[in-house]
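My current task is to audit a protein record that another person submitted. Please read both lines and tell me whether the tokens look consistent with the sequence. Do not assume that whoever made the record got everything right. I have pasted the whole thing underneath without changing anything:

===
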Amino acid sequence: MANRTEILISGFGGQGVVRLGQILGQAAVHEGLYTTMLISHGTETRGGYVRSQVVLSPEPIDSPSVETPDFFCVFSGIAYQRFKNLCLQGMIIYDPAVIGSPDGNLSCHQIPIAASKLAQQELGNPIFANTIMLGALGKKLSGRLSRESFLRALEERLPRFHKENQQAFELGYTFGARSAE
């Protein structure tokens, strides 16, 4: 494991961007890792810009800022355009329904996960798209964070719909396993 893993999650308010950062941090704590999280958002409560920056490390963290994310989980086309160039050698996980075609000029890996479509088809509600994305990210982080730590953190951080969120996480985890590194 690298000493420091930087994760950027960005989208609009109401999409669960902050909550996913909290779940990531909680899963890291379960693994005995140090973790930090910074959030920034626009003045709007819902629908405005939101970003979570999460850093994981087995050692104390000197700076909580994400400068070159190892993983970028995208929830809006605006977020993709704004932060895609930060992901130099990392991985971008995106929903093609949200950003359309990815920028083919980037040097990082770009992994499409049809989270909105899967959430609607498999769970009957697009609200679970964020947890599907978390599952895909969880699979990519499997050398750093265990599936069990994620599921435990989901249970602790999400106040309701435990069964559906667990199913959504498992869907994303499965699709994350199928996608190319």
